[in-house]
Amino acid sequence: MKKEKKIVEFPNLKQRLLEKAMQTMKEKKFSEALELFEQARENEYAYAEVELGMVVCYMELGQLTEARNRCKKMLREDIGDYFHVLQIYITILIQLKEYDEVKTTIEAILEEDKLPAQYAQNFYQLLEFARKMLPSEENESMEPDHNDQEDELFLLHEGNVQKQYELIQSLKHRNIRPLIPEIEKYLKDELKHPVLKTFLVHLLIEQGWDKETEVCKMGQRTIIVPSNLKSGEEDPFLNKIISILEDTVESDNPSLFEGLKEMLVRIHTVQFPLAFTPDKPEVWAAGLHHAGVELFGLEASDEELAAQYHVSTLEVKSVIREINKLEDFSYLRL
What we know:
Distance between the termini: 71 Å
Largest sheet: 2 strands, antiparallel
Structural class: mainly alpha
CATH topology of the largest domain: Serine Threonine Protein Phosphatase 5, Tetratricopeptide repeat
Order of helices and strands: HHHHHHEHHHHHEEHHHHHE
Helix content: 55-70%
Strand content: under 5%
Number of helices: 16
């Protein structure tokens, strides 16, 4: 009697299939990439990455309705990075000229959800664009009508987070020197949102403020000279973290690498201008990797990541707690 043959999968077949799909998509061979993503989906591998890859392919192939429906399903079932998927969903709606849905969706997010700082400005701009594209009775202004300085000062110190954010955004193209004393007062107030303080510090940097300025946030106090500060893109510590992640993550999982970079931008937005502690980029890279693995539904223990990044497990656990705290603050309740 003949023995039944066992079907043996090639090692890492699913991962290689996803990598091939990603590479094919990068080469703009979207029909071929879509077929590969379909195969990866049948193998139930890296579901979030596969679904998002398929959405992008459908977009590029001009099948916008299909892309919209799949994106909406991802949002409904909380698949992948919610706000990254939402941004793609809004982009599709705009291409379909569904401006009322854009307006309704963003307004719901601003009312009921936590909005990551890195997306806030873009969502406000998209909302303003959608309102302008609707009939005039639907068109509302995003800009607060506050010409009186006393009203502005009241909003800065007493307004809710959304009003404070709108006011800070409105200061971008104005001379803020008359408001410096109030801005300094805001930066010292431990109760004010750390992300909004970061936006104010960037305003001081952009306008070349060269005086010592005290900043209190996250239970820490520091003295800065805004004109001497470097932006995130120029920060050597951040670039070192990104370089480490490039070496350990990017080639195996490009989507995870991009997600980790976005997360780093978010926590840096909360932390700035405070320095990262501990001052070891390898530890932060390991902690970010851990957070990303959880987000993408992958597997890797603290011990494995500690060994991979040549740091201690205790250091990884400690920085994971710090990342979680910073991530929580990175979402603006507007």
